[in-house]
Amino acid sequence: xxxxxxxxxxxxxxxxxxxxxxxxxxxxxxxxxxxxxxxxxxxxxxxxxxxxxxxxxxxxxxxxxxxxxxxxxxxxxxxxxxxxxxxxxxxxxxxxxxxxxxxxxxxxxxxxxxxxxxxxxxxxxxxxxxxxxxxxxxxxxxxxxxxxxxxxxxxxxxxxxxxxxxxxxxxxxxxxxxxxxxxxxxxxxxxxxxxxxxxxxxxxxxxxxxxxxxxxxxxxxxxxxxxxxxxxxxxxxxxxxxxxxxxxxxxxxxxxxxxxxxxxxxxxxxxxxxxxxxxxxxxxxxxxxxxxxxxxxxxxxxxxxxxxxxxxxxxxxxxxxxxxxxxxxxxxxxxxxxxxxxxxxxxxxxxxxxxxxxxxxxxxxxxxxxxxxxxxxxxxxxxxxxxxxxxxxxx
Length: 395
Prior knowledge:
Elements: H1 2-6, H2 13-40, E1 44-46, H3 48-61, H4 66-78, H5 89-92, H6 94-109, H7 112-118, H8 126-132, H9 136-151, H10 155-176, E2 198-199, H11 208-213, E3 227-228, H12 229-239, E4 243-245, E5 251-254, H13 263-271, H14 273-295, H15 298-312, H16 320-332, H17 334-351, H18 357-372, H19 377-387, E6 389-392
Parallel strand pairs: 2-3
Antiparallel strand pairs: 1-4, 5-6
Helix pairs in contact: 2-3, 2-4, 2-10, 3-9, 4-7, 6-10, 9-10, 14-15, 14-17, 14-19, 15-16, 16-17, 17-18, 18-19
């Protein structure tokens, strides 16, 4: 009877809490390092021993099939915030994604079209076909047995926490809150947010907007004050020769005094387009609207305040009312019309990124020349910023 109460480890209450947190954290690390960064985006390679450990652990603690998880996540990126997105709170509502995230995952997991189109290059060995994919519930049954043997009757509670941890935090919080609340470093065309600058509880996945800006990056932190614990684990594995980073988000700089626009300038601009749009809003649109607001008549000021967000935020879907307000603001302000028109022209530079290199350089030179001749100080300064724009890849 005593064995059933205490289990083989005979831990105190606090020790069981700590053990539970460690077990769930290993699961989160497996999700972010193996399923997300390694399998879905190929941003790093893992030693076969580490790769299989993560796969085996996820089979024990979640019952998730690698191919299904990867396919659903890739489809999320490809169809983000549309009707085809498997779990967009902008489409389905925050409450549904938060409370029914695991149900949305299971519904999409049986979509063979999704698996065939987005589930390529995932494990396809004997174990995957005959054990992991074939008997997904066997793993979690073994985990339940182990929890009871190790912790006693309270092991059932430990098991319940393990089973809920990933659906609640990953399927609910990241897919839900990560596209609804938080701050944005980059003006991506989706509604992704950084939930917290300190990615600890969910392995770094809290930095969701950073990930959508640079999906192929093994590091999810971008600002100096952000922390990605998953990246810390990757660096440790890399130091031990058990992982190798393939891709990482660059460090962005603007070199003062650089006037010549070359292919490196165009490539950096295209690669970091979400950063450029964010900077354009901060350095150009915001100060111009502020200036126009101060000089406008009282009945026009509210209009300028309303359109500021509409003209900066890329993820906002503009309805007829919003479009009419922007059109009215542009009619009232020639400067605002100029900076907004040049923003659309700037975005067109990377939308047509398949053009010949010389043509792309020529178009960026023309854009900078037009901005410098606008007699709008904010635009002129931004053109100088773009001329010196470059990236430094770091690991």
